[in-house]
């Protein structure tokens, strides 16, 4: 399994010869190194419906004939664009050709604001577990700290976790430190920080809160072999 980080909460995963992108917020993302037309994706996974996570899903899916995996209401909303969807819900898992995806709970909101200002309810927010090539990845999505992260850590051997540290809208560094401890992840990558003034954080300081060798602050565009 190979992963790369592309600013905000955008994570690309390569496993079993499939390209997966999580929360592809590209246009309007001041941190990303990607452009929409260069993204190659077989699968798009969405954690929730906020615009800075749905991002450019529709265009990327149409360009690549990609499958969109998302919480039920969000998947149905995206599917109105003639896109191939696979709706899921919290606690559910499904075996795809690249591996198994399971949605976990997350404590956040989930709605999409259209260009005319209309706000669409998009179901429950989620985190994502991907198990493939004998590795397990956890993308927490946008969330506050919650005690069931202990259970997620007890029930899964997590090789790499992507945790928000921006504070204000999600966990801050100290809560993310506790989440990392509960999850027992071998490596932890900070996400959802620096994109906007309200979520400015120092990822290196966050890494220093973790046991030696656990924190993995990836630079934008950097790749890591899990």
Q: How is the topology of this model organized?
A:
Elements: E1 2-5, E2 11-15, E3 18-22, E4 43-45, H1 51-54, H2 57-64, E5 67-71, H3 72-79, E6 85-88, E7 93-95, E8 100-105, E9 111-113, E10 119-121, E11 126-132, E12 135-139, H4 149-155, E13 160-164, H5 173-183, E14 187-191, H6 203-208, E15 223-225
Parallel strand pairs: 3-4, 4-5, 5-6, 12-13, 13-14
Antiparallel strand pairs: 1-2, 1-15, 2-3, 7-8, 8-11, 9-10, 11-12
Helix pairs in contact: 4-5
CATH architecture: 4-Layer Sandwich
Widest β-sheet, arrangement of strands: 6-5-4-3-2-1-15
Number of helical segments? 6
Task: Flag low-confidence runs.
Answer: none
**Run of helices and strands:** EEEEHHEHEEEEEEEHEHEHE
Q: What overall geometry do the principal axes of the alpha carbons give?
A: globular
- How much of the sequence is in beta strands? 25-35%
Helix/strand/pairing category: alpha/beta
């Amino acid at each position: 399994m190979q992963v790369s980080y592309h600013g905000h909460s955008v994570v690309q995963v390569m496993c079993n010869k499939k390209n997966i992108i999580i929360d592809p917020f590209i246009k309007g993302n001041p941190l990303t190194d990607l452009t929409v037309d260069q993204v190659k994706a077989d699968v798009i996974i969405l954690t929730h419906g906020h615009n800075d996570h749905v991002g450019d899903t529709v265009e990327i899916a149409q360009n690549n004939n990609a499958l969109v995996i998302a919480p039920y209401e969000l998947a149905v909303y995206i599917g109105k664009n003639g896109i191939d969807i696979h709706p899921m819900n919290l606690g559910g898992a499904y075996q795809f050709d690249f591996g198994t995806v399971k949605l976990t709970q997350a404590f956040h909101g989930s709605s999409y604001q259209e260009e005319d200002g209309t706000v669409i309810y998009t179901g429950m927010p989620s985190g994502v577990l991907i198990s493939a090539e004998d590795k397990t990845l956890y993308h927490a999505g946008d969330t506050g700290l919650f005690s069931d992260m202990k259970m997620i850590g007890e029930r899964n051997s997590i090789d790499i976790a992507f945790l928000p540290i921006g504070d204000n809208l999600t966990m801050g560094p100290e809560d993310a430190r506790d989440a990392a401890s509960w999850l027992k992840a071998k490596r932890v990558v900070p996400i959802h920080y620096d994109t906007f003034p309200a979520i400015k954080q120092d990822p290196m300081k966050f890494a220093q809160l973790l046991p030696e060798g656990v924190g993995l602050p990836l630079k934008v565009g950097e790749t890591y072999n899990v």
